[in-house]
Amino acid sequence: MNWFQRGRPGVDTSEERRSIGEGVFRRCGACGGTELAEAWEAAFEVCPQCGHHARLGARRWVDLLCDQGSFAPFGEDLEPCDPLEFSDGRAYVERLRAARRSGVSEALLAGEGRADGMPICLGVFAFAFMGGSMGSVVGERLARVFERAASARAPAVVVSSSGGARMQEGILSLMQMAKTVAALGRLRDTNTPFVSILTDPTTGGVAASYALLGDVNLAEPGALIGFAGPRVIEQTIRQTLPEGFQRSEFLQEHGMIDAVVPRASMRATVVRLLRLLTE
């Protein structure tokens, strides 16, 4: 018997003790600092202490970039098929069902909205949905972003966050690289601007297709951007890579992107660029 156990008669307080602070505080994965969850939310998931940019959900990106209440999604009725009946120990259809619990129907949220009054066509990747992988539905939604932008002569803005092609769809997934670039080419024919925003991570088939083809390519601080990961490259070429290799600052230094923009300045930067590009 524990003579020093304290509590209300007939009440189990163990769960109560475990829940103290749960959901109230957040710890930064970079500096280890602890702040109120409200502070993280107000800063759009940027650490108030060190400025580390944690991943931001797709709907929060819409809140950040679009005027309040102006965003209207499209392509929500599209669903992927499973022609390979793929299973990696768990059926693809089961993985899709689990991924939808993240609050989005697929790994890309697409729609039309306004940014400081300007009409835009917006695509935002949802990394929480199967690592933001690009399958047939993601490719179709993204193509529609570019096609609607071309039709309406409204600038296209895409926020990328992806591990690359979706292996469960095989060649159908890889085809989306060509499909999205072709749709972007049709947008270019109308002289309508495309601003590409690269966040952590933007890799694989997404990085190798449309993501680095913006009229202006912006990236968040510290974002991992590239085709294969640094460890794979080191093992392949058997050389030690430079410090900061494939991070956004490294890419800017070597001319791969145009600017590294903190999240707090992203909306103002995008609006300023779109006004310059459409005047």
- Our count of helices gives 10
**Helix content class:** 25-40%
Distance between the termini: 79 Å
Q: Assign an overall shape.
A: globular
How is the biggest beta sheet arranged? 8 strands, mixed
Estimate the mean pLDDT confidence.
92
The secondary-structure element order is: HEEHHEHEEHEHEHEEHHEH
Number of strands: 10
Please state roughly what percent of the residues sit in beta strands, choosing from under 5%, 5-15%, 15-25%, 25-35%, 35-45% or over 45%: 15-25%
Rounded to the nearest angstrom, the radius of gyration is 21 Å
Helix/strand class: alpha/beta
Q: Which residue ranges are poorly predicted, with pLDDT under 50 across at least 5 consecutive positions?
A: 1-5, 11-20
Structure description:
With 279 residues, the chain is of the alpha/beta class. 35% of the residues lie in helices and 18% in strands. It is built from ten helices and ten strands. Strands 3, 4, 5, 6, 7, 8, 9 and 10 form an eight-stranded mixed β-sheet that branches. The protein has a two-stranded antiparallel ribbon with strand order 1-2. A hairpin with a 2-residue loop joins β4 and β5 (118-125). α5 (136-152) runs parallel beside α6. The protein is globular and about 45 Å long.
